[in-house]
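Lecture notes, continued. The same structure-token format from the folding unit now serves as the input rather than the output. Read the line below as a description of shape only.
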């Protein structure tokens, strides 16, 4: 079906269509998905991303080249035929495993093909670069590893205490190097889970590089782990919980009296607070819940707000889906303390621009977020000199956050300003009406 043929006219006889549907199509290699148009072949590197299947004829092609906004059909013909009698025959052919007819050719314009070729070349270049650097970059099988990245490059990670809005940001002061903890002993042949004491050598955010007690200067079994994990405990937890402390098999021969060794090593040492796990659990409790409705900035028109629904909460960050998004993909991410989100009715109360939703009533399960959950705006004394319309100032360009531009105050509301950014005397795109 990727043979670069010309599409058939609508007046083609049924007999010729039948013959065409019986033509054999040479099988393509499963590891080389291709797109062919006007006699040219382009490789689509990821194989699946950007592809779609026609609901009428079963043709697989580039999603952007499909017809209609929903991208359900590969051509106008398939879209019109979907509700006609030919639908039954097409579905029957698909069930019988017959290849689609030439009518099902995906209509592609030359500019799109050119973009696909450029995209394919770009992705292939990235893949080649990744293969070249694979031996120099430390990446775990499950994804990026902060521990390996920091350790292999001798980088310095910003501490958790720098982020007061993050989980444990206000109670991380007790965690530092040389703190002792009880962790699972992975160097053991016992069938049951046992623990041993380890010391923190290095911190990288929530991650810590640990070394088992008794290894001295031997880094052979050093490992990274998340200090907030469920298997990390303060010294004394095993004794209180009835869990065994067993030295690693590699160093069992070094000492005959491990109890005396631990007493000597742990005297005067620091460990985690007894309520550390409780603090971790409490810091991961967020007041915002899925299905809550909020007003949030419209990412396509930054000078107005619109209604969105909380889809998920991760680390205090909210994934907000705009209420009018039918497929739940039109979303916006921000922190729960961000000044970009507000309670329902906020825009109207201060005179801010607001996009009304086409949805006349709340969907089942959705409810308005209580106003007290939002960050309060600091009150300022407006009795003296204050912002006025027409004033000039410097402001961050919302379309290029790395730059600061000259701005003009267009409106003063009860809580913040609406700025019209200007660069060399020209208004920014989002300011144009």
């Amino acid at each position: 079906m990727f043979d670069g043929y010309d599409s058939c006219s609508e007046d083609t006889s049924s007999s010729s269509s039948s013959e065409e549907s019986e033509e054999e199509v040479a099988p393509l290699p499963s590891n080389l998905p291709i797109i062919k148009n006007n006699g040219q072949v382009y490789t689509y590197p990821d194989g699946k991303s950007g592809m779609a299947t026609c609901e009428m004829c079963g043709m697989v092609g580039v999603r952007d080249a499909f017809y209609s906004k929903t991208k359900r059909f590969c051509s106008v013909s398939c879209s019109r035929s979907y509700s006609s009698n030919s639908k039954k025959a097409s579905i029957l052919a698909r069930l019988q495993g017959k290849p689609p007819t030439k009518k099902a050719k995906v209509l592609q314009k030359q500019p799109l093909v050119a973009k696909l070729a450029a995209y394919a070349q770009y992705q292939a270049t990235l893949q080649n670069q990744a293969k070249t650097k694979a031996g120099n970059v430390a990446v775990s099988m499950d994804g990026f590893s902060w521990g390996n990245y920091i350790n292999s490059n001798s980088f310095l990670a910003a501490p958790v205490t720098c982020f007061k809005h993050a989980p444990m940001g206000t109670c991380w002061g007790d965690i530092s190097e040389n703190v002792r903890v009880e962790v699972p002993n992975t160097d053991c042949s016992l069938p049951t889970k046992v623990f041993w004491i380890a010391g923190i050598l290095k911190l990288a955010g929530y991650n810590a590089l640990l070394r088992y007690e008794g290894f001295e200067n031997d880094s052979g079994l050093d490992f990274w782990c998340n200090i907030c994990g469920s298997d990390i405990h303060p010294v004394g937890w095993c004794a209180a919980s009835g869990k065994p402390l067993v030295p690693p098999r590699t160093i069992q021969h070094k000492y005959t009296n491990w109890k005396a060794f631990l007493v000597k090593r742990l005297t005067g040492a620091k460990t985690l607070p007894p309520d550390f796990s409780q603090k971790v659990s409490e810091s991961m409790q967020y007041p915002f819940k899925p299905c809550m409705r909020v007003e949030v900035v419209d990412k396509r028109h930054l000078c107005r707000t619109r209604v969105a629904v909380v889809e998920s909460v991760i680390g205090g960050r909210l994934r907000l889906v705009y209420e009018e998004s039918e497929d739940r993909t039109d979303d916006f991410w921000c922190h729960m303390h961000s000044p970009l989100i507000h309670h329902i009715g906020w825009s109207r109360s201060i005179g801010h621009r607001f996009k009304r939703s086409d949805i006349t009533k709340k969907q089942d399960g959705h409810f308005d977020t209580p106003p007290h959950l939002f960050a309060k705006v600091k009150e300022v004394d407006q009795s003296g000199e204050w912002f006025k319309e027409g004033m000039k100032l410097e402001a961050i360009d919302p379309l290029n956050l790395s730059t600061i531009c000259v701005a003009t105050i267009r409106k003063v509301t009860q809580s913040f300003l609406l700025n019209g950014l200007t660069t060399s005397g020209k208004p920014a795109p989002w300011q144009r009406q």
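Point for the exam: DSSP finds nine helices and 21 strands in the chain.
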